[in-house]
Every structure is written in structure tokens, then in C-alpha cells.
Specification:
The complex is a heterodimer of chains A (122) and B (111).
Chain A: E1 3-7, E2 11-12, E3 18-25, E4 34-41, E5 48-54, E6 59-61, E7 69-74, E8 79-84, E9 93-102, E10 106-112, E11 116-120
Parallel strand pairs in A: 2-11
Antiparallel strand pairs in A: 1-3, 3-8, 4-5, 4-9, 5-6, 7-8, 9-10, 9-11
Chain B: E1 4-7, E2 10-13, E3 19-25, E4 38-43, E5 50-54, E6 58-59, E7 67-72, E8 75-80, E9 89-95, E10 101-102, E11 106-110
Parallel strand pairs in B: 2-11
Antiparallel strand pairs in B: 1-3, 3-8, 4-5, 4-9, 5-6, 7-8, 9-10, 9-11
């Protein structure tokens, strides 16, 4: 059974750096064809994809946020860590991590965490 | 950047009636391998999104067969043959070929 759970601060001040951790179980990130992504959703708004990291350490970033994002993985801890710099109130959102895998083709995000609400405010 | 445009923005449906949502991509999500990296998700109120459809028309595990996806090129459609109360929420399309992009969402409610 695949599960993912996001953790991190709920309140961040403008200009600060946000670090979120996705802790997962039920799969192994070194397994070929596996990836973990981060997606966010401002209150009442649509989903926005942020970044993906794959089993081979390939990383793909949303071009509009590229310079502010870093994603890393710790396979020994079954964790993926997202760092976002220079936070602004518009970054207030629920942040989700999700699992993606290759099964003859790249599937969608088939398992999602519950999400964590991050508020950016002074 | 790829833009995904969903219509309508919202939909009010009588239980038992069909519903249809469209999604237009500014570029085709079809790979040279012949696979089309296009997906549909449903986000029920207060929940995380859940995958409904992958590769345009394949239902994810556990998804009822009243949901069907179709389309090609840049135009795609999600159909619900008979809407049930549990189908309320916001539906999102997503392309997964040129990085990843979600549509703006279509809110479905019951009349």
C-alpha cells in the first residue's frame, strides 16, 4: 500500500525559505520508473505542478518557479525534500506530494499525500 | 509553456444524467512512442486529487465505468454517463509530456 505524507511549517514569513518533506512508504524511489512530484493549490484555486524527481535523480522544474525551487531525495529515509526560497504571500497554498510511475508509459500521479497548508504572512 | 483550457468552468447536473467536460491543450501531449500523456483527476471537497483516467482513456484502478475519457491531438473529453452524488467536486485535466500542466478545473455540482 502506497502512502505519502507531507510535513513542514504551517506559517512562514515573507522572504523566508520553505522546506517541506514528503515521507512515503509502499514503494522505493531507487526502483526504476518511479518518481515523486510536488503540486500546490492556493485556496480556492487550481492545481499547479511544481517539480518532479525520478528514481535516477533526474529532476524537472516548473519554468515559472525554477529559480526558487530545489528538490532532493533521501532514499535511506524514504523522503523527498522540497525547498522554495524567497516566499511571498502568493505562495500561500496547500502543498501536495504525489507518486508517479512508468508502466509501459508514464502514468499520472496515482497516489497523493493529504497535503499541508502553508501560509505566508508576516 | 503548454496551456490547458477546460470548459465549462462549472456544471450543475441532475443525478442520473450525463455530464461532459472538455480540455484543450495548446500542444499535443502525444509522444513519439505513440502514447498520449493526458490525464483526468477529480478532487472531491476537502480531499486530495485522485487519478481517474490516464493515457486519455484508460480508467485507473477502482474508477467506476461510468467515467470515460476520449480525444486526440489537442482536444480531450471526460464523460460521466450517469452522474451520482459522489461525483461532485472539481475535475482537472493534466498533460504530462511537455513537463506537466494542469487545467483550470471544472466544478461539478448536483442539482
Amino acid at each position: 500500500q502506497i502512502t505519502l505524507k507531507e510535513s513542514g511549517p504551517t506559517l512562514v514569513k515573507p522572504t523566508q525559505t520553505l522546506t517541506l518533506t514528503c515521507t512515503f512508504s509502499g514503494f522505493s524511489l531507487p526502483t526504476p520508473g518511479v518518481g515523486v512530484g510536488w503540486i500546490r493549490q492556493p485556496p480556492g484555486k487550481a492545481l499547479e505542478w511544481l517539480v518532479l524527481i525520478y528514481w535516477n535523480d533526474d529532476k524537472y522544474y516548473n519554468p515559472s518557479l525554477n529559480t526558487r525551487l530545489t528538490i532532493t531525495k533521501d532514499t535511506s529515509k524514504n523522503q523527498v525534500v522540497l525547498t522554495m526560497t524567497n516566499l511571498d504571500p502568493v505562495d500561500t497554498a496547500t502543498y501536495y506530494c504525489a507518486h508517479r510511475r512508468y508502466i509501459g508509459a508514464w502514468g499520472g500521479f496515482d497516489y497523493w499525500g493529504q497535503g499541508t497548508l502553508v501560509t505566508v504572512s508576516s | 509553456d503548454i496551456v490547458m483550457t477546460q470548459t465549462p468552468l462549472s456544471l450543475s447536473v441532475t443525478p442520473g444524467q450525463p455530464a461532459s467536460i472538455s480540455c484543450k491543450s495548446s500542444q499535443s501531449p502525444m509522444h513519439t512512442d505513440g502514447k498520449t500523456y493526458f490525464y483526468w483527476y477529480l478532487q472531491k471537497p476537502g480531499q486530495s486529487p485522485q487519478l481517474l483516467i490516464y493515457e486519455v482513456s484508460s480508467r485507473f484502478s477502482g474508477v467506476p465505468d461510468r467515467f470515460s475519457g476520449s480525444g486526440s491531438g489537442t482536444d480531450f473529453t471526460l464523460k460521466i454517463s450517469r452522474v451520482e452524488a459522489e461525483d461532485v467536486g472539481v475535475y482537472y485535466c493534466m498533460q504530462g509530456l511537455h513537463l506537466l500542466t494542469f487545467g483550470g478545473g471544472t466544478k461539478v455540482e448536483i442539482k
